[in-house]
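PROTEIN SPECIFICATION:
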Amino acid sequence: MNIFFTAPYSGKKKFQSEFDLIRQTLDTHPNVKLISPEKGNYLQILAPSDPIHTDTNRRVHYEAIRKGIEWADAVIFEVSEECFQLGHEMTLAIQSKKHVLCLSLFENFERKIFSKYFHGARYTKETLVPIIDKFIARCQKESLPNRFNFFLSHSQIRFLETTAKQKGMSVAEYLRTLIDNERQ
């Protein structure tokens, strides 16, 4: 599973040991390929031919994070030091239908943000590994590795498109929801 992990630069002085612990936990997880500014490998996500390489360092950093989120199957944020930019990056990930784990030493943000793609946890050094293991297991369970094609009539397609649009979903999301609801 491809995971992108990031944390606020403004929190480095105060929380670097926690950032390192999360990075090390992810780095040693058998099912994880990690890209992270904390690991120092996040710029590799940019292609050498990207015109962004000629721009400022901040723009290169932002573009690498954006592409890292795009590349990832799931994204983990450490937010003990709250940061507007990380909030924006979480929104990008959620809008891209990536599962997001928001870790904080002080608060479980899952009590404030409601999305099927948002997962929050208040963690300690003792609880971090089980939290990450549970998150990865859930993401793997909900990943969509199988493609299934079938034929539908024009009226069935129109029905699916209309209903999905009314519900604010894609046709594929709507079909998965129907299946999941029927299984419960």
